[in-house]
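Human:
Class, as today's exercise, you are to examine the entry below, and be ready to discuss the fold:
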Amino acid sequence: MTMHSLKYIVAILFTAFGTFVFAATADAAQIGIGTEQKIVQNPLELERQAIELERQQKIEREKRLAEEKRLAEEKAKREQAEREARAKAERIAEEKRVAAEKARQEEAKRQAATKAEKKQQAASSATVTPVSTQGRVIQAESTAYTNDAADNGSYGGRVLTATGHDVTDSIYVNGMRIIAVDPSVIPLGTVVQIDGVGQAIALDTGGRIKGNIVDLLVDTKSEAINWGRRHITITLP
């Protein structure tokens, strides 16, 4: 073999070895940079992935916190709106109640004033009939009552008879006693003579005063109790 042939063979061998070394170096450069080879990854790539994962987790946490804050604010707004609505409804209900109570009181005053006016008109129109010594005599059963507002009711703080006469401060009218009667027996406004009492005038009525029964107005409850229930003689005009 000639020297020239030997050199040619050596050159081919070196070329082949260089190609092998280059391929091996290329394979080694690919280790751990995203290839599918089952080789330990590059530490720099692992660090980059860890940083990216932490960044994504931070973003997710911030989104979650922002959503929780938004939901809490919406809940607080709803609750505030509900409280305001309840307060408004309660305020309106209270205003209506106060207005209704005021209207009821005004109506009660109006009715009381109307009733008192009617009684006064009846009293002014009642004709006082003087007693004649030759008049008709009847036997009657009598009881007694007082001018206490708690027992009779009042109109603007005043106690009035059925004919509208004010008996708050006195049980007399022109020196005469006041009696409650059944108007079908003794007409209202009639002056009568009662044995043991003197002159009395019929100015009042009562739910239990029916027939030959009269109720004598007295000053106190003790007088009414002492009077009790007794028979009397009445002389009418």
Observations:
- The longest strand covers residues 137-146.
- Residues 40-125 form one domain.
- Confidence is low (pLDDT under 50) at residues 20-35, 125-133.
